[in-house]
Amino acid sequence: MRAFVNRDGIAFSDAQSMQPVQEWDLAENLEGVLKFQTRYKFQRCWQSHFAFPDNFGADTTQIRYIGLKVEATQLKKDVVATIVYEVTPNPSEHKTRADAGGGLSHVE
Question: Which PANTHER family does the UniProt entry name for this protein (predicted)?
């Protein structure tokens, strides 16, 4: 299995020629209980692709589940706690320039 991180538009042909962040030699296991360690730290990862160049000689490849176990690290930046998006603003909740003595009466 080959892993690629933060790459847009990877095709099957690209996965053969591109350098992955990590490769694993998978073992055939019908119970699906194998665990593999990573040496690559998936930091700042917003997108990941996995390519399976071999499938133990079968005509088709079936992947039923891929689980990633991760450990969260502390955030280094302050997180915005409350974000409000207004689809339709309520003018009574907003001050206008006229309210502040500016002379205009529209909502900004």
Answer: AD039 HT014 THIOREDOXIN FAMILY TRP26, PITH DOMAIN-CONTAINING PROTEIN 1
